[in-house]
Structures are given as C-alpha cells and as structure tokens.
Design brief:
The protein has about 280 residues and is α+β, with helices and mostly antiparallel strands. The protein is about 30% helix and about 35% strand.
Length: about 280
C-alpha cells in the first residue's frame, strides 16, 4: 500500500504543534526517541523529521509528498510549492528591527543601510516592492547581535514575543509578513498519495474548524426563543428542545470562539439562563 510521506520540523515549537494536530486527527505515531523517520500505526503515513530550512527542497525533489512548515520558510525557499491548508498555529512575524535609539519613520529609512538577515529573498522582494536599495549581510543564526557589533544598521528576522529583540537593544520597526504553519504539497505528488492527502486534509479541516468553535447549551423561556435564535448562528440553525418545566426550552448551537463573550452577554440580556459552553473535538460539515 502506498504511504503519504510528510515532513515536519525535527524539534521546537513547530514540531510539537505538528505532532499535536496529527494526534488530534486520530493518527497514532510509532515514534521512538531520536528517530529521523516514523510510521503511523493506523493511517498510511510516514513522518520525516527534518531541518525546517531543508524541507522546501525535499518537497521540490519529491522526496516527501507534503510538509507542515512555516509559511515564512516557503516564501523564502519554496517557490512553486503549493499551500493546501493554513493551519493556524506556530504564528510569527518577519520584521524589520533597528536599535532602540534609532528613529524609524518608514521603509525609506532603509535606503543605503546595511541589513543583516537570514531571509535574503524575502527582504529583497520587500525592498524592491518599496523602491529601496540596501546592502544585505546574510547571516545564519544570531542575527540580533549584528547591529551591536557594527555589522549592520538594521536586521530582518522572525519575531514572536519580541523578548530577543529587547534583550539585544532592538525594537520592531516594521512587519514585512505574518506567518503561520501551513500544509505544503510537493509538485511531484502521485495520484495515489494525493488521494491519501485528501483524506488527511478532510480530517485537518474538521479539527481546525472545531478549534475555532464552541458548543453552547442554554435554557430560555418560550417567549424569548425567537429572540435567542436570532442571536445564535448555528451550523444551519439552532436546535430547540422542550424542557420538563412548562414554558421553557433548551437551545443548542455552535458559535465562533472569538465571538464568545459578546454573544454570551447578548444571550443573558435576552433571558437565557444556565448557559453552558463546551469545546468541540471535531466538526464534520
């Protein structure tokens, strides 16, 4: 039987988030310590643990069929590789940073400056788009130290919390792009493995939709049911069931987790009582 070959980062936060979502979609990994390759016990899948920066080339060469990878890495090294799903985790930014004491008004302030970065293609695209010419110093790792040792006037690097910039006397000046983990597909994937990928992607979409949703149960007097139904969107429409207590109904629905507090406040104002909000494991639409 054909197996879908998937690459993930071999360590770090992206590795942990990737393994978690595979677990959430019901895939059990036979994963020993320090393995570079592992097989799923209950799905036609092989996992390759690789350096993040090497994954785009493995995709291009067809060594792996798909990968969970940072979108920023694909933009830098993955020209021609298709993104089939944005996964919503391992978010970060690729940003311009300058010393704290330096005034920065716009990208035009980078004209003629020295910029240290591990993302030369991304930076060049950004500068060309804005009509700016600068001198790039390509550094692999520890980019933040470059201004302190006189190597550069600014840097472009990944920013998550901003604590590393702060420790090195830098400030974020401009965001070039926002990135998250994505499911990327090799241009050489076979028809058989594409069929397996379709099944995997269906599971991923169910879990991702569930992560953004909450299940709501509440009680309401019958004369308020119509008002409450107008507040709750539901997948098609809310479920309304009569309670043992005459004149009352139980209403069940699904809401977007980002709208949670606004909707709850509105429900209370319209007579809802006994409101329960529960996480959802999967949503098959």
């Amino acid at each position: 039987m054909s197996k879908l070959k998937i690459a993930i980062q071999k360590s770090g936060r992206l590795n942990e988030d990737s393994m978690q979502i595979l677990k959430d979609v019901g895939i059990s990994i036979d994963n020993g310590k320090d393995q570079l390759k592992a097989s799923a016990k209950n799905f036609p899948l092989e996992i390759f643990y690789l350096r993040n920066g090497d994954i785009p080339q493995y995709l291009k060469d067809g060594v792996v069929d798909v990968a969970i990878i940072g979108e920023n890495v694909l933009i830098e090294k993955g020209n021609g590789i298709t993104i089939s799903e944005k996964l919503g985790f391992s978010t970060c930014k690729v940003s311009v940073a300058v010393p704290k004491g330096v005034k920065y008004n716009s990208v035009k302030d980078l004209e003629g400056k020295r910029i240290a970065t591990s993302y030369p293609n991304t930076v060049n695209q950004f500068l060309e788009k804005n009509g700016v010419t600068a001198n790039l110093h390509i550094i692999n790792g520890s980019v933040e130290i470059a201004p302190n040792i006189g190597l550069a006037d600014a840097i472009v690097d990944i920013v998550s919390s901003g604590s590393t910039l702060f420790k090195n006397g830098l400030k974020e000046a401009e965001v070039i792009l926002k990135s998250e983990a994505v499911l990327a597909v090799s241009p050489q994937i076979s028809d058989d493995n594409q069929a397996i990928l379709d099944k995997l992607q269906f599971r991923l979409q169910s879990v991702l939709k569930a992560r953004q949703s909450r299940y709501v149960l509440l009680n309401a007097p019958n004369n308020k049911v119509e008002d409450i139904i107008n507040i709750l969107p539901g997948m098609k429409s809310p479920t309304v069931l009569p309670l043992a207590q005459e004149g009352w109904s139980s209403i069940h629905s699904v809401i977007n987790k980002n709208d949670f507090w606004e909707i709850i406040d509105e429900l209370k104002l319209n007579g809802a009582e006994g409101i329960l909000v529960c996480p959802i494991d999967n949503m098959v639409l």
